[in-house]
Every structure is written in C-alpha cells, then in structure tokens.
Amino acid sequence: MSPAPDERDRIRAAMDRILAGSPQHSNGALTAEAGIPRNALTQRHLDLKNEFYEKVRGRGETPDAEKRLRKQVVKLKELRATDAEEIKQLRADVEVLVGALHQSQMENRQLRKQLADRPSNIRVLPTQPQPCPRAIAPQEHVAPATDE
Q1: Cβ contact 47:15 at 8 Å
Q2: Is the separation of the CB atoms in 39 and 3 below 8 Å?
Q3: pLDDT 10s digits, 93-119
Q4: Is residue 136 pLDDT above 60, yes or no?
Q5: What is the spatial distance between Cα 108 and Cα 122, in angstroms, rounded to a whole number?
Q6: Rounded-to-integer distance, Cα 125 and Cα 128, Å
Q7: Cβ-based burial of 30 (10 A; exposed 0-12, middle 13-18, buried ≥19)
Q8: What's the alpha-carbon Rg for the chain, to the nearest Å?
Q9: Banded model confidence at residue 16, pLDDT cuts 50, 70, 90
Q10: End-to-end CA separation in angstroms for the chain
C-alpha cells in the first residue's frame, strides 16, 4: 500500500497540535492524531518520528512510549524479585522435604530391623497390603406388595 500524498503534512500538523497541547483526534498519540497507521511513522517517516520525540524531550517531557516502557520495566523488576523470592523458598522447601524423607526412611529401616529381631511368635505384616476381596452377600428377593 502506498502512502497517502498528504501523509507527511498530516503528521506535521498532528505534531504541531500535540506540542501545542491541543490534540483534536486523540489523547496525544501521534499516529492517531495524524490518522495514519503506526508502521507509516515507524517505517516510512522515521525522520518525522525522531523529530517529534526530540521536540518532546527538548521541552523536558518524557514521550508516552518511554513512560509506558519505564512502567513495564518497574513491573518486570517487581515480578523478577517476587520470582526470585519464590525460588528461594522452593529451594528451602526441597531441602526440608529431602530431610524429612531421609528421616522417614531411616525410621522405616530401624522399625523393620526391630521387627526382624523379635521372637518368632510375632508375625510381620506385608509391606504392601493387598486389597481384601469384598464379601458379596446375595441380595434377597423381595416380592412386590399387593393390596389384597
């Protein structure tokens, strides 16, 4: 798609309105104010885009895109800190769980040894209990009630 013949003029007019503080078609977004697609500004008219942001910075203001990026950076840093804390906690939890598992294995070995050392009149239960078959009682047949 070729650019509209007045595209550069619309961008310059939009720049003037925004810098004057009186945008008519947007909240200050240059592409919306000029009524052009974003890629027109970032690909075909890069010089005008750079000129606009230089003027904004020259006034001591921060461009909207930079403000959005700064907010996103702050949010990402917060998320990174939260993730780092969670990872630290998970690593500590793993250590505790490994210790608990080791302890239970040691206790299990000790209990098995105690059972093996007991007199022969004590029966050791199987380590993996088998499911007991259910006793299925035959159902009684009930004759339907009659009103006689």
Answers
A1: no
A2: no
A3: 999 999 999 999 999 999 988 878 877
A4: no
A5: 18
A6: 9
A7: buried
A8: 39
A9: confident
A10: 94
Place of tokens 């339907």: 144
- Which tops the pLDDT comparison, 141 or 49? 49
∠ CA 139-142-147, nearest 5°, is 170
In this structure, what token pair is assigned to residue 63? Answer: 């461009």
Q: Residue 135 has which token pair? A: 């006793």
Q: How far, CA to CA in Å, does 29 sit from each of 15, 34, 67, 98, 136?
A: 9, 9, 13, 56, 78
Task: Count CA atoms closer than 13 A to 144's CA, side-chain side.
Answer: 2
All residues at 6 or more sequence positions from 115 whose CB lies less than 8 Å from its CB, including other chains: 122, 124
Place of tokens 């380590």: 127
Q: Which residue has the tokens 């959005």?
A: 68
Token pair for residue 60?
Answer: 């001591």
